[in-house]
C-alpha cells in the first residue's frame, strides 16, 4: 500500500488527526467526544501512518514503545482520582479550578482522568496492533 | 494482644529480607520471639488462675459483624502456653537440626507464620476470625510438610494434608456461618448465652455435623486420619510442633471450646464417643506394627487424639477434666519423643527400630529424656502421665451402662500406646551398641536440651501437680464446664479400682513389649489391608473426581472459539425461548412511530446487502469489508437517533477492527471450506433463532412502561454536580469513574496478554 499519494497524505494526516483527537478529548465534557474516542482516533492516525510508511518508520517517529503509555495513563487516572484524598474528600470527588483557562475552558480532575483514559487507549491499541503486525 | 498475635506474621514477612542473617548466627535470636510471647502469656497466668478472663477487641469488618475479638481464658491459655512454649523449644532445636540448610530462612518464616495463626485460632472470640486462622494453619502446614519440595513423596503428602484439612475447613466455615445465622452473632461469648436457643433450633444437627467434619479432618479422626502419617515427611521439628503438640489439637480445641455451647446432647456425645473410640483403638493397634519411629509416633498421636475426642464426647465433668489434663500430658511426652526421633535420625541416618539399639552409650542425655518421656507415656507413677491415665479410667468407669465396654477400649488403647512409647523411646537406647554407631557423638546442646526440658516437666508436674492445678487445670476446666465443682488433681488416690487398672495396663504393656518384637515381616502383613483402608478409597474417589473434571472441562473448554460461541448462544437461546414461552407481551403502538425516511431505508438496504455478502462471500477480504460496512451502517443509525458519542466510538472501533482483521488475514492460508453442509446449516439455524429471540426481546422492552428516573437524574445532575454538559462523558469520567478506572486496567491487562503471548512465541521459535 505504499503509493505516493497515500504516503504524502499520511504525513499530513498524522499531525492533523492527533490534533483532532486532542480536540475531541478536551471538548468531551461539554460536547460529543472524550478520552476513549480521542484515544481511538489518535491510534488510527498512527496506524494509517504505519500502513503508508512501514512500521519501522512509525516506531522511529514515536521514539518509545507505545506500551509505555499504558502505565503512564493509568497513573494519571489514578492520581486524578486519588487527589481529593489529600484535601480529605472521598476518592474521585470532582475538583475544579476556579477560573477557566483560555482555549481549553474549565479544567478539573475529570479532565485529567480522561487524559489518562486517552493515553491508556492509545497504548493498548497500538501495542496490540503493532505486536500483531510485527509477529504475523 | 493483637501485636502478640501478629508478631509471628510480621517476622514471617521479614524473613526474606534478613535471610543472610538467619542463615548465619542470627538464627539463635529467633527463638526469642516465641519465648517473649511465652513470658507475655505467663504474666496473665495469675489472674487467669483467679478465674478472670480477658477480652480484647479491634474492629475489622464492622458491617458484617466481623472483628478481631480475642478472649483469653483457661482453655486459650493452655493452648497459648503450649504453642509458645513448645514453639520456643522447637525454634531452638531447628537452629541446629537444619543448620546450613539453604532454605532455613523460609523454614523459619513458615514456622512463625504457623505459630501466629495457631495463636490467633485459640484466642479468637469471633468465630469467623477463628475460621480464618484455622485455614492459615492448614496453609502454613502445607508449606512445612512440603518443605523438602524436591521430593515427590513430600509434595504428595503436603497436597493430601492440605486437601483433607482444607476440605474440612470449608465444612467448618459453613457450620460457623450457620451458627452465626441461628445465634444472630459471631461473637462466641455472646453465642454462649444462647446455648439453649441454638440446641433447640432445627439446624442444630447441621451445625454440629459441619463443625464435626472440620474438627475430625484437622485432628485426624477416623476416617480422615490418613493424612497425618503422610505428613511425617516433614522435617522433624515440624512433626513435633504441628503434628503432635499443636495443630492437630486445633480440632480438639474446637470441640472443647464448643462443648458448653453445643455439647450435652445425644447427637454430640454419641458421635464423639463412637468416632473417638474407633480412632483410638484402630490407630493404637496400627501403631504396634510400625517399624519407623516416626510412623509409630504418628499412629500413637492419632490414637491420643482419639482418646481426647472420646473424653470430650463422654461429656461428664470427670471426662472433661481428664481431657484437659491429657492435652498437656500428651503434648509433653509426644513432643519429646518426636524431638528425640529427630536427633536419632540426624545422628544415625535411620529411624528403623529394628536396627537401632544401645544408643544410650553414646547419646546419654537423649536417652534420659527418651526414658522419661516413655515412662510418662506409659503412665508409670510418679509421672504426669500417671495422673492423666488415672483421670481417663475414672471418667470411663463412671459412665453408666457402658462403663465396662468403654473402659476395656481405653485399656486396649493404653496398652498399645504404652508399647508404642517403649518402642520409640526405650528400644533404640538399650541393648548392645552396633559397632557402626560407636563413633557417634552428642549433637549441639540446642538439640538435646529441649527434649530434656519437656520430659523433665512431665516428671515435675507428676510429682507436684499443685504447681498447675490452680493456675491452669482449674481455669481450663471452668472454660469447658460452666458451673463445675472445683477440681483437684493428685498423684496418689489410694488403693482402688483405678489404681488396679493402671497397674494392669502397665503389666500388659510391658509383657506385650517382651513378646512382640518389631519386624518388617509383621509390618508388611498389615499392608494387605490397605485395599479397604480409607486412604485407598479416598484415592479412588480422587481419581474419579479428576477424570470427571477432565471430561467436563474437555467438553466445554475445548479451545475452539466456534464451539464456545455455539455453547453460549445455544444456552442463551434455550433460556430466552423458555422465558418467551411463558408469555410474550408484545405491544407496538403504531401511532407513535415516526414515518420512515429515505435514508433510513437506504441504510437498512445497505445492511442487508452487507450481511448477504458477509455470509456468502468466498473471499475473506470481502467478508471482512462487508462486516465493516455493517458496522458503519450501525454508526449511521446511532447518528440518526441522536447518539453521536456512540456513533463516534463505533466508527473508530469498526475501523480498527477491520484493520486488525486485514493484518491477520494477510497471513492466513487460502480460504477453504472446512465445515460440512450440515454444520453450516446448524449454525445458520442457531443464528436465526438467536437473532429473532433478541429481536422479540427488544420489542418487548418497548411494551414496558418507560422508567426515566435514572436518565433524569443524570441529565439534571451532570452540570450541577460535575460541571459537564455531555452526560455520557460525565457518567464515564465522574459518576461511574471507578468503573472506567477498572475498565482501562482490564484493557491494559489484555494488551499485555496479547503482547506476551505473541512475543514469547516468537522468541521460542527464534531459539529453535
UniProtKB/TrEMBL annotation, chain A:
<keyword id="KW-0812">Transmembrane</keyword>
<dbReference type="InterPro" id="IPR050622">
    <property type="entry name" value="CPA3_antiporter_subunitB"/>
</dbReference>
<keyword id="KW-1003">Cell membrane</keyword>
<feature type="transmembrane region" description="Helical">
    <location>
        <begin position="36"/>
        <end position="55"/>
    </location>
</feature>
<feature type="transmembrane region" description="Helical">
    <location>
        <begin position="12"/>
        <end position="30"/>
    </location>
</feature>
<feature type="transmembrane region" description="Helical">
    <location>
        <begin position="67"/>
        <end position="87"/>
    </location>
</feature>
<comment type="similarity">
    <text>Belongs to the CPA3 antiporters (TC 2.A.63) subunit B family.</text>
</comment>
<dbReference type="Pfam" id="PF04039">
    <property type="entry name" value="MnhB"/>
</dbReference>
<keyword id="KW-0472">Membrane</keyword>
<feature type="domain" description="Na+/H+ antiporter MnhB subunit-related protein">
    <location>
        <begin position="5"/>
        <end position="127"/>
    </location>
</feature>
<protein>
    <submittedName>
        <fullName>Na+/H+ antiporter subunit B</fullName>
    </submittedName>
</protein>
<dbReference type="InterPro" id="IPR007182">
    <property type="entry name" value="MnhB"/>
</dbReference>
<feature type="transmembrane region" description="Helical">
    <location>
        <begin position="107"/>
        <end position="132"/>
    </location>
</feature>
<keyword id="KW-1133">Transmembrane helix</keyword>
From TrEMBL, chain B:
<dbReference type="InterPro" id="IPR046806">
    <property type="entry name" value="MrpA_C/MbhE"/>
</dbReference>
<keyword id="KW-1133">Transmembrane helix</keyword>
<feature type="transmembrane region" description="Helical">
    <location>
        <begin position="621"/>
        <end position="641"/>
    </location>
</feature>
<feature type="transmembrane region" description="Helical">
    <location>
        <begin position="560"/>
        <end position="581"/>
    </location>
</feature>
<feature type="transmembrane region" description="Helical">
    <location>
        <begin position="240"/>
        <end position="256"/>
    </location>
</feature>
<keyword id="KW-0472">Membrane</keyword>
<feature type="transmembrane region" description="Helical">
    <location>
        <begin position="362"/>
        <end position="387"/>
    </location>
</feature>
<feature type="transmembrane region" description="Helical">
    <location>
        <begin position="740"/>
        <end position="758"/>
    </location>
</feature>
<dbReference type="InterPro" id="IPR001516">
    <property type="entry name" value="Proton_antipo_N"/>
</dbReference>
<feature type="transmembrane region" description="Helical">
    <location>
        <begin position="681"/>
        <end position="703"/>
    </location>
</feature>
<dbReference type="Pfam" id="PF13244">
    <property type="entry name" value="MbhD"/>
</dbReference>
<dbReference type="Pfam" id="PF00662">
    <property type="entry name" value="Proton_antipo_N"/>
</dbReference>
<feature type="transmembrane region" description="Helical">
    <location>
        <begin position="204"/>
        <end position="228"/>
    </location>
</feature>
<feature type="transmembrane region" description="Helical">
    <location>
        <begin position="296"/>
        <end position="314"/>
    </location>
</feature>
<feature type="domain" description="NADH-Ubiquinone oxidoreductase (complex I) chain 5 N-terminal">
    <location>
        <begin position="63"/>
        <end position="108"/>
    </location>
</feature>
<keyword id="KW-0813">Transport</keyword>
<feature type="transmembrane region" description="Helical">
    <location>
        <begin position="647"/>
        <end position="669"/>
    </location>
</feature>
<keyword id="KW-0812">Transmembrane</keyword>
<feature type="transmembrane region" description="Helical">
    <location>
        <begin position="159"/>
        <end position="184"/>
    </location>
</feature>
<feature type="transmembrane region" description="Helical">
    <location>
        <begin position="268"/>
        <end position="289"/>
    </location>
</feature>
<dbReference type="InterPro" id="IPR050616">
    <property type="entry name" value="CPA3_Na-H_Antiporter_A"/>
</dbReference>
<feature type="transmembrane region" description="Helical">
    <location>
        <begin position="399"/>
        <end position="426"/>
    </location>
</feature>
Amino acid at each position: 500500500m505504499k503509493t505516493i499519494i497515500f504516503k504524502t497524505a499520511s504525513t499530513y494526516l498524522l499531525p492533523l488527526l492527533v490534533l483532532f483527537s486532542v480536540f475531541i478529548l478536551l471538548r468531551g465534557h461539554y460536547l460529543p467526544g472524550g478520552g476513549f474516542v480521542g484515544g481511538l482516533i489518535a491510534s488510527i492516525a498512527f496506524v494509517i501512518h504505519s500502513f503508508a510508511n512501514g512500521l519501522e518508520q512509525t516506531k522511529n517517529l514515536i521514539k518509545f514503545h507505545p506500551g509505555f503509555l499504558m502505565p503512564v495513563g493509568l497513573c494519571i487516572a489514578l492520581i486524578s482520582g486519588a487527589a481529593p484524598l489529600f484535601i480529605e474528600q472521598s476518592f474521585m470527588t470532582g475538583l475544579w479550578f476556579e477560573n477557566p483557562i483560555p482555549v481549553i475552558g474549565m479544567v478539573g480532575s475529570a479532565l485529567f482522568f480522561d487524559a489518562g483514559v486517552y493515553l491508556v487507549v492509545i497504548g493498548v491499541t497500538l501495542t496490540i496492533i503493532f505486536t500483531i503486525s510485527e509477529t504475523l | 494482644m493483637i501485636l502478640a498475635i501478629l508478631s509471628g506474621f510480621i517476622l514471617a514477612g521479614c524473613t526474606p529480607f534478613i535471610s543472610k542473617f538467619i542463615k548465619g548466627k542470627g538464627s539463635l535470636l529467633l527463638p526469642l520471639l516465641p519465648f517473649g510471647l511465652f513470658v507475655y502469656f505467663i504474666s496473665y497466668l495469675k489472674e487467669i488462675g483467679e478465674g478472670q478472663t480477658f477480652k480484647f477487641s479491634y474492629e475489622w469488618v464492622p458491617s458484617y459483624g466481623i472483628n478481631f475479638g480475642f478472649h483469653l481464658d483457661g482453655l486459650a491459655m493452655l493452648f497459648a502456653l503450649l504453642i509458645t512454649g513448645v514453639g520456643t523449644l522447637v525454634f531452638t532445636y531447628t537452629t541446629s537440626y537444619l543448620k546450613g540448610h539453604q532454605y532455613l530462612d523460609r523454614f523459619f518464616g513458615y514456622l512463625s507464620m504457623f505459630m501466629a495463626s495457631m495463636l490467633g485460632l485459640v484466642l479468637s472470640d469471633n468465630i469467623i476470625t477463628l475460621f480464618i486462622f484455622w485455614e492459615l494453619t492448614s496453609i502454613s502446614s502445607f508449606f512445612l510438610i512440603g518443605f523438602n519440595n524436591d521430593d515427590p513423596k513430600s509434595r504428595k503428602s503436603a497436597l493430601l494434608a492440605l486437601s483433607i484439612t482444607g476440605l474440612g475447613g470449608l465444612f467448618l466455615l459453613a457450620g460457623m456461618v450457620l451458627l452465626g445465622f441461628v445465634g444472630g452473632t459471631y461473637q462466641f461469648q455472646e453465642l454462649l448465652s444462647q446455648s439453649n436457643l441454638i440446641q433447640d433450633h432445627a439446624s442444630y444437627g447441621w451445625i454440629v455435623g459441619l463443625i464435626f467434619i472440620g474438627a475430625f479432618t484437622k485432628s485426624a479422626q477416623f476416617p480422615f486420619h490418613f493424612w497425618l502419617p503422610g505428613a511425617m515427611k516433614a522435617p522433624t521439628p515440624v512433626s513435633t510442633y504441628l503434628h503432635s503438640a499443636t495443630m492437630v489439637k486445633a480440632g480438639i480445641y474446637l470441640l472443647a471450646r464448643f462443648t458448653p455451647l453445643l455439647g450435652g446432647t445425644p447427637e454430640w456425645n454419641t458421635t464423639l464417643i463412637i468416632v473417638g473410640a474407633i480412632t483410638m483403638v484402630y490407630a493404637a493397634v496400627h501403631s504396634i506394627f510400625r517399624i519407623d519411629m516416626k510412623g509409630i509416633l504418628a499412629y500413637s498421636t492419632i490414637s491420643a487424639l482419639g482418646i481426647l475426642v472420646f473424653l470430650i464426647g463422654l461429656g461428664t465433668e470427670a471426662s472433661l477434666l481428664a481431657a484437659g489434663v491429657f492435652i498437656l500430658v500428651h503434648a509433653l511426652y509426644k513432643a519429646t519423643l518426636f524431638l528425640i526421633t529427630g536427633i536419632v535420625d540426624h545422628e544415625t541416618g535411620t529411624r528403623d527400630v529394628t536396627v537401632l539399639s544401645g544408643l544410650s552409650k553414646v547419646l546419654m542425655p537423649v536417652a534420659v529424656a527418651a526414658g522419661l518421656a516413655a515412662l510418662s507415656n506409659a503412665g508409670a507413677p510418679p509421672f504426669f502421665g500417671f495422673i492423666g491415665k488415672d483421670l481417663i479410667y475414672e471418667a470411663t468407669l463412671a459412665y453408666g451402662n457402658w462403663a465396662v465396654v468403654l473402659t476395656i477400649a481405653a485399656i486396649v488403647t493404653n496398652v498399645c500406646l504404652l508399647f508404642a512409647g517403649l518402642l520409640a523411646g526405650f528400644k533404640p537406647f538399650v541393648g548392645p551398641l552396633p559397632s557402626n554407631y560407636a563413633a557417634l557423638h552428642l549433637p549441639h546442646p540446642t538439640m538435646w536440651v529441649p527434649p530434656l526440658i519437656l520430659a523433665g516437666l512431665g516428671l515435675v508436674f507428676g510429682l507436684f501437680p499443685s504447681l498447675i492445678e490452680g493456675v491452669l487445670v482449674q481455669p481450663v476446666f471452668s472454660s469447658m464446664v460452666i458451673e463445675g465443682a472445683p477440681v483437684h488433681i493428685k498423684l496418689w488416690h489410694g488403693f482402688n479400682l483405678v489404681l488396679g487398672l493402671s497397674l494392669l495396663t502397665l503389666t500388659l504393656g510391658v509383657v506385650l513389649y517382651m513378646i512382640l518384637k518389631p519386624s518388617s515381616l509383621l509390618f508388611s502383613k498389615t499392608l494387605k489391608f490397605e485395599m479397604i483402608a480409607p486412604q485407598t478409597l479416598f484415592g479412588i474417589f480422587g481419581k474419579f473426581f479428576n477424570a470427571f473434571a477432565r471430561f467436563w472441562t474437555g467438553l466445554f473448554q475445548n479451545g475452539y472459539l466456534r464451539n464456545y460461541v455455539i455453547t453460549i448462544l445455544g444456552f442463551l437461546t434455550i433460556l430466552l425461548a423458555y422465558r418467551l414461552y411463558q408469555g410474550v407481551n408484545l405491544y407496538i403502538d403504531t401511532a407513535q412511530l415516526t414515518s420512515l425516511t429515505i435514508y433510513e431505508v437506504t441504510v437498512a438496504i445497505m445492511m442487508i446487502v452487507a450481511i448477504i455478502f458477509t455470509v456468502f462471500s468466498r473471499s475473506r477480504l470481502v467478508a471482512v469489508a462487508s462486516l465493516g460496512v455493517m458496522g458503519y451502517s450501525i454508526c449511521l443509525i446511532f447518528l440518526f437517533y441522536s447518539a453521536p458519542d456512540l456513533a463516534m466510538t463505533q466508527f473508530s472501533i469498526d475501523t480498527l477492527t477491520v484493520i486488525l482483521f486485514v493484518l491477520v488475514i494477510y497471513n492466513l492460508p487460502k480460504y477453504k471450506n472446512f465445515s460440512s453442509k450440515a454444520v453450516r446449516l446448524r449454525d445458520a439455524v442457531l443464528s436465526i433463532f438467536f437473532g429473532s429471540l433478541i429481536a422479540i426481546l427488544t420489542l418487548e422492552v418497548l411494551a414496558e412502561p418507560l422508567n426515566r428516573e435514572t436518565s433524569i437524574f443524570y441529565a439534571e445532575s451532570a452540570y450541577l454536580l460535575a460541571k459537564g454538559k455531555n452526560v455520557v462523558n460525565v457518567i464515564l469520567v465522574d459518576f461511574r469513574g471507578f468503573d472506567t478506572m477498572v475498565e482501562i486496567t482490564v484493557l491494559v491487562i489484555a494488551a499485555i496478554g496479547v503482547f506476551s503471548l505473541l512475543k514469547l512465541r516468537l522468541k521460542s521459535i527464534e531459539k529453535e
